[in-house]
Amino acid sequence: MIKARKKQVTLLLLSALMLLMVAFPVNASTRTLSGDIGVHDPAYIVESGITWVFSTGQGIQVLYSSNGTTFSRGTQVFASEPSWWSTYVPNHTKLDVWAPDIYYYNGKYHLYYSISSFGSNTSAIGLVTCTSILKGDWVDQGVVVSSNSSSTYNAIDPNLFADKSGNLYMSFGSWFAGIYVTAIDKTTMKPTGNSYRVATKSGGIEGSSIIYNASTGYYYLFVSIGTCCAGTSSTYKVAVGRSTSVFGPYYAKDGTDMKNGGATVIDSGNTQWVGPGGQDVPSTSLIVRHAYDATDNGAPKLLISDLYWDSSGWPYYN
């Protein structure tokens, strides 16, 4: 009788443990990275087993890794400025390029990026393509979207994504009137129609990344809210909302429309990693971002984490 009761208790404990593992997966993890991981606004992709990370910096900075955890710095994309940059952004600072986004489509890698001057919406999103990142046969494709002081939006922080039918779209925007979404022509890989506002937030919103999750039936709009670029004084947080339509409305968990300031924070940082943001969500199982390392004078560094989804269809990671 005692043995039977012990066995019953053991089974009950095992059942409870399994339920906890389902609710809070023990394998939810952030990769341990090494090498050169200095980065801001990372964009992540894998080509033939090599992990590539493009980021804000001189001529678009490039990191690469053969194992996905140990990174080295590669050759920057631009050695000199395309002539059209000075036409659209006269006050642009030489080769300073912001917030790239990489997308593979129709046999080519499409690298979107932005040029601007801090605090201004005289900005432009450009496109450069190649057939192989390793080969580095980059070809300038010119301007994609631009804005100026009379524009409501700010043409920076591009993110290309596909809807559930394979149609292409781009989200972009920073502060000013917030985040916008526009359809992308599959031939030119540039906008083909109007841009629609999907999110605003007082105190700062930018760095959008949209992904469709077929398991939940929702589009998820990830954003960085708050302020960046001030080391450990940065207030960036990663937040999210979701919608059944590409053009919204996107709602936070509490039901607030993101156009009205709604945003569900899923990462506000910790004692070491301050101001997480500039995120890229390359798949429903991965999120890549930067944060400021409090143990290294606030240097921005790369973080890569497994992305999980709770029973209500909301993303989280540790």
From TrEMBL:
InterPro entries, per database record: GH43_arabinanases, Glyco_hydro_43, Glyco_hydro_43_endo_a_Ara-ase, Glyco_hydro_beta-prop_sf
UniProt-recorded name of the protein: Endo-alpha-(1->5)-L-arabinanase
Catalytic activity: Endohydrolysis of (1->5)-alpha-arabinofuranosidic linkages in (1->5)-arabinans
Positions annotated as active site in the UniProt record: D41 (proton acceptor), E206 (proton donor)
Taxonomy of the source species: Bacteria, Bacillati, Bacillota, Bacilli, Bacillales
Signal peptide coordinates: 1-28
Pfam families: Glyco_hydro_43
GO MF, any single term: arabinan endo-1,5-alpha-L-arabinosidase activity
CDD domains per record: GH43_BsArb43A-like (cd18829)
GO BP terms, alphabetized: arabinan catabolic process
Similarity-based family: Belongs to the glycosyl hydrolase 43 family.
Keywords, sorted A to Z: Glycosidase, Hydrolase, Signal
Gene3D superfamilies hit by this protein: Glycosyl hydrolase domain, family 43
Principal EC category: hydrolase
Site residues by UniProt (Important for catalytic activity, responsible for pKa modulation of the active site Glu and correct orientation of both the proton donor and substrate): D157
Pathway given in the UniProt record: Glycan metabolism; L-arabinan degradation
